[in-house]
Amino acid sequence: MHTVLLAAPTPAGTDKLVRFLSLQGVQIALFIVGAMIMTRFIQWGTARITGRIDQSFTESDELVRSESAKHRHSVAQVISWVAIVIVYVIAVFNIIRALGVPITGFVAPATVLGAALGFGAQRVVQDLLAGFFIITEKQYGFGDVVELTIVGSVATAEGTVEDVTLRITKIRSADGEVITVPNGQIVKATNLSKDWARSVVDIPLPVGADISRVNEILHRIGQQAFADPRMRPLLLDEPTPMGVTEMEVDGVTVRIVARTLPGKQFEVSRDLRARIVRAFGRAGISLAPGESIETGAMVSTTQREGSE
Predict the structure, then answer these.
(1) Domain CATH for 291
(2) pTM, full prediction
(3) DSSP for 252-278?
């Protein structure tokens, strides 16, 4: 006597799921994996390009990056960002097709969604447009020292640019903090390292100080700094005393300025302050009571961008 075992009937839903996973499921998985691989490849290629740009600067004898190198670095990062967005848009489009959803069915919802995004994503569109003009107009780029005035903020964001995309700008402050600023929120961008910069050192003096003698000492300090082999490569011309710039009841202020390489004004200012303190100490000249030597930095170009 033989026993016949009958297989239990498979639910219809299970068959459909198996067919879906064996056909569309594999296709969808390939699209996802392909998009991830393409993203990694784009990031790898961008890292190679930017690394080569940085290496060419490191191996050269230049003290500062050229404007073209900064611009190429920023453009490479933007192209990478745009390429990744395109890859994921294509992947999503093909996944929708693989699911069997007709694209024409998205026309009406897309219209409603577009109208909603038009109101809700105004800030994003503003950021993208602002980023486009920042890059095309070469307002600043990777490695620049900038000071950004932001909408609704009293304090400015100042530091070295580490990343510029169409939507955001990332800068690292002197304290090592990374500040991310949406491009559309920047109302004024001051580039402290474009073309050339100017070191400005103000010296407060008491009333009755011998201004002629002070100017002679400052002139000699400028000559010594310009002749110093360590400082000469940073200076575009000899530091020049500007005489009295401010007069108050209890004191006067004299100024010395120097035109420097981009981003080197701070180093030059530190050196000038040290020379001034030593020279004034030897000459017996004292500062105004309760005052200190102040340093400012002027730049050749101030970039402005308005946004609402």
Answers:
(1) 3.30.70.100
(2) 0.53
(3) EEEEEEEEESTT-HHHHHHHHHHHHHH
